[in-house]
C-alpha cells in the first residue's frame, strides 16, 4: 500500500463528491485530501513542507488539478508548482472539462504530467480514476527526493 496521499484541487462540491465516491469504490486505500482553489493547493503543500523534516515529508503521490477555480486558477498553480525546487517533482494531472487543443498544449508547456478531460458518466469516471491511480502509484517511476 502506498503511504502517499493524493491531493485533489476541485472547486465544485458535486465533482468532489463524485471523485471521493469513485476512489472509494475502486478500493483506494490512500488518503485523499481536497482543496477548493489554487491558493489552498499552495498552502496545503507549504504546510506539509514546513511541518516535517525531509525524510518524513508526505507530499502527495500526485495532484488532480482542475483548471477553472476561484482565487488562483489551475494554470497559475501549475506554473508555480513546476518552478518550485521540491513541488516540481509531484506529478500534476490536469483534470478538467476543457477540451481545447490550445489549452491542452499550454498546460503541457507549463509542466503538466498528464491532461485528462473529465468523463461524463460515473462508470467512465471509475475507469479514469483506476487508470490514473494505477499508472502513478504502480507503473510510473518517480524520484523520491
From TrEMBL:
<dbReference type="InterPro" id="IPR011006">
    <property type="entry name" value="CheY-like_superfamily"/>
</dbReference>
<dbReference type="InterPro" id="IPR052893">
    <property type="entry name" value="TCS_response_regulator"/>
</dbReference>
<protein>
    <recommendedName>
        <fullName>Response regulatory domain-containing protein</fullName>
    </recommendedName>
</protein>
<keyword id="KW-0597">Phosphoprotein</keyword>
<dbReference type="Pfam" id="PF00072">
    <property type="entry name" value="Response_reg"/>
</dbReference>
<dbReference type="GO" id="GO:0000160">
    <property type="term" value="P:phosphorelay signal transduction system"/>
</dbReference>
<feature type="modified residue" description="4-aspartylphosphate">
    <location>
        <position position="66"/>
    </location>
</feature>
<feature type="domain" description="Response regulatory">
    <location>
        <begin position="5"/>
        <end position="133"/>
    </location>
</feature>
<dbReference type="InterPro" id="IPR001789">
    <property type="entry name" value="Sig_transdc_resp-reg_receiver"/>
</dbReference>
Amino acid at each position: 500500500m502506498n503511504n502517499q496521499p493524493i491531493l485533489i484541487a476541485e472547486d465544485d462540491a458535486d465533482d468532489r463528491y463524485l471523485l471521493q465516491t469513485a476512489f472509494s469504490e475502486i478500493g483506494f486505500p490512500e488518503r485523499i485530501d481536497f482543496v477548493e482553489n489554487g491558493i489552498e493547493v499552495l498552502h496545503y503543500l507549504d504546510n506539509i513542507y514546513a511541518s516535517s523534516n525531509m525524510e518524513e515529508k508526505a507530499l502527495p503521490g500526485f495532484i488532480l488539478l482542475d483548471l477553472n477555480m476561484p482565487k488562483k486558477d489551475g494554470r497559475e498553480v501549475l506554473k508555480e508548482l513546476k518552478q518550485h525546487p521540491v513541488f516540481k517533482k509531484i506529478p500534476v494531472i490536469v483534470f478538467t472539462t476543457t477540451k481545447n487543443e490550445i489549452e491542452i498544449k499550454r498546460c503541457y508547456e507549463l509542466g503538466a504530467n498528464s491532461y485528462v478531460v473529465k468523463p461524463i458518466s460515473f462508470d467512465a469516471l471509475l475507469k479514469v480514476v483506476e487508470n490514473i491511480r494505477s499508472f502513478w502509484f504502480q507503473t510510473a517511476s518517480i524520484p523520491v527526493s
